[in-house]
Amino acid sequence: MRGWARFFFFEACAWELLAFRARVRFKRNPLFNSFMELCIIGSGYVGLVSGACFAEVGHHVVCVDNDQRKVDMLQRGEIPIYEPGLEELVQRNVAAKRLRFTNSIAEGVDHGQIVFIAVPTPPQADGSVDLTYIERVAREIAGVLKPGQYRVVVDKSTVPVKTGEKVEATIRRYNHSAELDVVSNPEFLREGCAVPDLMHPDRIVIGSSSQRATDLMKRVYEPFQAPILVTDVNSAELIKHAANSFLSLKISYINAVSAICEASGADVEMVADGIGMDKRIGRNFLNAGLGYGGSCFPKDVKAFIAIAEELGVPFHLLKEVERINISQMERFLKKVREALWVLRDKRVAVWGLSFKPDTDDVRNSVAIELINKLAAEGALVTAYDPKGMGKALEYKLLAPTVRLASSPVEAVAGAEALLLATEWKEFACQDFAAVKAAMHTPLLFDGRNLLNPGTMRGMGFVYYGVGRP
Ligand code: NAD
Which residue of 74, 244, 371, 456 could cross-link 300, Cys pair, CB 3.0 to 4.6 Å? Predict the structure, then answer.
């Protein structure tokens, strides 16, 4: 097997092994013989993958969504999102009758002693969190909870500290006889590797003030055999925003260092290796590039700034994290302008649309922002992405002049520059002789430091990375 094929093969095997280990634990340990009945409200990236993984370890799960189109697709066995390993997991557990889908919150809440909320928490114009989806679900749960039916309502969505209190107060306000506890159980999965992240988590955080609810939550997670941290509800809610903001801070830190590397002739990749080999720091999230994007980091950093502001504790450090993130794109575009001079009517190819590799998620993608900025300056952009093109078209995220190609090589035909915006492995193993031959001018801007500068220059490309000579 050749290099990349071997890598993909072993990666797939590793995921299968993790899932298998979790199933075996569930079956072997007598404590796990009693599966639990779970409901998940919201069947998106978090809800659907969580539901499938809970079912995989033996729980019986009903996933609820109010998007009828999504429910219809799932009931037909189609998966509305791309997430490696998810399709097999869903199909296996639907066939085993441990997983089903509905648009009826009454059906879901009736089934699940534990009701997870995994609906969106988008940002508002001022950066604070829009909690209308959460509030609506709280009212809907109140409307269908039957007398004497104890439920643990679990917030898995990323919410500001003190939201649990509001969810509980709302359910009790609309249902005076409700018997429930509200728990915070933030989700730390990464899109693109959500299945292994959920099957084999670093830690499970359970924020609870009720022993009964905590014990039930521990039973849910027992098959995963991961470290469990039990906290109060407020701390659990804060952990999620603090964690995502810290990871964003790491990215902005190395991006700020990349600017110093460019000014001094140092190589940010070597600097990151040197920093990251220190176990106290770690190499993860020290990859210089175009900055962080996606549906979580930008909104969670903004939210944490707004939460701190509201509590009267301004978080200046995080404002700088945001500023560095924005300036990273500008520094990259400046290099493109310096090389091409005027962008108007220049043919530019962009590889990447999704906000990171191995996902079709294009929400808040830096690649799309880059493409639209190029198009706004009159560049004729042709883009390619292995999985993100469908959603980019569906959500109409691209400027009207942007064309999509059916392959990386087709995208570069006649291009005066190639910009690499998302670090898909597929891009690293292209036939670069064919890529160069198809281009008008071999200018290569590697916004994710995916490629080897020496190799690319040796092939005749004029290579620009981020923070490396
Ligand atoms: P998503 O948009 O992919 O999915 C949310 C789903 O909820 C959608 O399918 C939507 O139709 C459904 N929904 C909305 N209102 C509903 C209602 N009243 N009843 C039933 N279904 C409803 O969102 P996501 O990416 O899964 O994120 C969900 C939450 O998890 C957010 O708070 C997010 O910040 C958090 N989170 C996301 C990730 C991630 O990587 N995507 C990781 C950790 C945490």
Answer: 244
